[in-house]
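User: quick one, fold this
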Amino acid sequence: MSSIFKSASEIANSLTAGDVTAVEVAQEHLDRIAAVDTDVHAFLHVDTAGALAQAAAIDKRRAAGEKLPALAGVPLALKDVMTQEGIPTTCGSKMLEGWRPPYDSTVVAKLKANGVVILGKTNMDEFAMGSSTENSAYGPTHNPWDLTRIPGGSGGGSAAALASFEAPLAIGTDTGGSIRQPAAVTGTVGVKPTYGAVSRYGLVAFSSSLDQAGPCARNVLDTALLHEAIAGYDPKDSTSINAPVGKMVEAAKKLDVKGMKIGIVKELSGDGYQAGVKARFNEAIEALVSAGAEIVEVSAPNFEYALAAYYLIAPSECSSNLARFDSMRYGIRVGDDGVKSAEEVMRMTRELGFGKEVKRRIILGTYALSSGYYDAYYGSAQKVRTLIKQDFDAAFAKADVLVSPTCPTTAFKIGEKANDPLAMYLNDIATIPVNMAGIGGMSLPCGLAEEDGLPVGFQIMSPAMRDELMYQVGGTLEAALLSKWGKPLLSSAPALGAK
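Assistant:
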């Protein structure tokens, strides 16, 4: 079997056994990208020379008898919001077109230290603002299950790269669901770690109190391997948690939920969900019960305010963070061909450099932070955030983990919600509370909806710094569903799939 259809752990085993070289693995994936990415558009930049050089260096070290990290030589797709020295980093925006960072983000530095081969940078909603990857200044990414549909957002490029077998691993970032929602609609696995568990240094900020980088893969074990590789304390990040990294891989392999209490969140499993989504969710619950878990219902009454609070907090922080893109220090510069004031150059640059959704959120955030409105809007939203955290604390007193569908629906058509911001925002209704509380969240596939044959995501939420619980439950559920299906879900993808 070609390495492109193997899991990351299978590739790692083949490399260790000497059955294949890292250069051969990298080349197979680069060839796959060349073959299918014209249709998928998962990548904004493919670093062919850099990837092959990284792979060759791993082969040289392995040939010399050096003991290498678990993922050494395994390829990865990197969301274009993480800085990588000398590699174009655009955040899906014209504002940063042509920018090549002079430094590596901590996540990239950890990937390099673990010998992971970075294939290139993936497409995304501009500055991570969106739920469909339609807001990229460089065109939308297409869902490999149906090329007329969205791959989720903002990290649709990373999820699509996994689902189209262009890479076995990927890095995403999650501010309100941007790892988990793309994972759900592409039939892949994505984890938003506890806030502060993975360094944000070198992650171009959207909303600093919500942004979190995390691992993405095609199965739970591979996601756990990547999680352990990128997590850990970083003094360069003032919000980084100085605590040991949990044993994610051990938890993913445990395959045991006997005696665990799993809480179904009442407010995240009622009306408003597609019938096929609810059916697959209920079947997944039945599988966990069969595996020995106890199901309890928990209530989180303040979750109904999460969406509104999020769309005050995130735009407020975005308006502050994006003020730095002023044509003077970063990215493009427009209007300095004549005698114009600095203010005029800034205005012209920001008008051309930012897309419609980014401008919308900057305006919302600036208004919410303006004199006379700060306490009424931003201040009130922060109070709601505290109430959401208290709801989670009360729920976790009754259950080890909480669960819900990841998204209300399967992937919708490209363009279907582009002119209806509220309809677009509602896609994140089940994922946003996790970011507001800073806890961990995972999405893994739980089947295909009858209506359209598209993947459905199952969300698992764990207490802060107990991310290993997501992997224990996720690994158990994945094994139970795989036994039922008889083959991985992605092997059924009709558009590109395992061809």
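User: anything notable?
Assistant: Residues 3-302+385-492 form a domain with the Amidase signature (AS) enzymes fold (CATH 3.90.1300.10).
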